[in-house]
Amino acid sequence: MTVTDSALTLPTPDLLEVVASGARIDGKQVTAALLKAERQTKQQRQQISSEALLGTWRLRFTAPKKPTYRAGQPTDSGFYVPGLAIATLSFSRDDSGELTIQNQLQVGPARLRFTGPAKFLPKKNLLAFDFVRLQVLVGGLSLINLPLHSKAAKAGDFADASVARLPFFSFFAARRGYVAARGRSGGLALWAKK
């Protein structure tokens, strides 16, 4: 579904909700909406609850080149993730109540999955994580299931690992239908609730 230019006048949260629901709006407009939401969250010092992140989120849109504003316009347009490749991010709690992360890419029946522990720093809306297991699955069959040499394992215990040594997402939006964050590498991403 493509949205007309009149939809581009929607307020930022509504525009991001429309994109998360499956509509395609010009990439520069989506990137601008993400940058605006990020700036508003920082200026208003809004805190996101880790509970708002729980569930499975499908990657819908990404702007991977450290997008910023230049002369009032976003520096990158970003792109929609093709329907052929389904990238998901899942957050849950294990039996001890600790936060866990799963990052999965699925193409047809084949799935590449990374899992590990996560920790949320609410004052910064920062979710740090460490992948400790890699799996390759085809249908219900597990072809590869290997432990990974994680950054936290090198430093000791994950709970004590410095965020400076870990990958992270800095979340700036968490609504019922979507979440949005800037990654450690500087890119922006919008995930829709699955």
Shape: globular
CATH C-level class is: Mainly Beta
Number of domains: 1
The percent of residues in helical segments reads: 10-25%
Please state the average pLDDT score: 88
CATH architecture: Beta Barrel
What count of helical segments does DSSP give?
3
SSE topology string = HHEEEEEEEEEEHEEE
Please identify the structural class as seen in this structure. alpha+beta
Write the CATH fold name. Lipocalin
Unreliable residue runs: 1-8
Roughly what fraction of the amino acids lie in strands?
A: 35-45%
Biggest β-sheet strands, sense, barrel: 8 strands, antiparallel, barrel
How far apart lie the N and C ends? Answer: 18 Å
Rg to the nearest angstrom? Answer: 17 Å
Summary keywords:
single chain, 194 residues, alpha+beta, Lipocalin, 8-stranded antiparallel β-barrel, two-stranded antiparallel ribbon, 13 strands, 42% strand, disordered N terminus
